[in-house]
Design a protein that fits this description.
4 helices; two-stranded antiparallel sheet; alpha+beta; disordered N terminus
């Protein structure tokens, strides 16, 4: 995000100074949740935490916050956020916790929708959903490897 200032700076007369404002978390994407801190290494998110978050999170609630959908029978329908269309072909199933667009073919679970809609990585999408439910993301403990995985190979 660029912000222009109309103040005089030393050595600059009647020009605008441009200041770069960086976002917390990831500088590349302003949609990154504020609580997301880029890890030093590549730790994996705990699978039990992911299962718990998937069970707790409601796909209709999260998608309904980001895009307009209306109840149609047992599912929800709306125009697809990933391509332009006039008639609704985007469907959300609360019982299966999935979405599907029959126009462009996109589909998946809650995390895939957040990734595609907000253009986030999987880890950032998990942080986004966890923030919505006031959860703290839990990472697996790193495995200490004292020797190479190729140590036992005879070459």
């Amino acid at each position: 995000m660029d912000t222009a200032l109309n103040t005089k700076l030393p050595g600059i007369e009647r020009r605008q100074a441009v200041i770069k404002i960086s976002y917390s978390g990831s500088d590349a994407n302003p949609n990154t949740p504020a609580s997301y801190k880029k890890p030093l290494s590549n730790p994996m998110i705990d699978s039990y935490f992911l299962d718990k978050l998937r069970a707790q999170a409601d796909i209709v609630f999260i998608i309904g916050e980001l895009w307009e959908i209306k109840k149609a029978g047992s599912n929800y329908k709306g125009c697809c956020p990933f391509h332009t269309e006039k008639s609704p072909s985007f469907s959300v199933s609360p019982s299966k916790q999935i979405f599907k667009c029959y126009g462009c073919g996109k589909g998946g679970d809650l995390f895939r929708f957040v990734q595609d809609f907000k253009r986030l990585t999987f880890s950032e999408a998990v942080h986004y959903v966890a923030d919505r439910y006031n959860e703290t993301v839990i990472y697996e403990r790193p495995i200490n490897r004292t020797r190479s995985r190729f140590h036992d190979l005879d070459l």
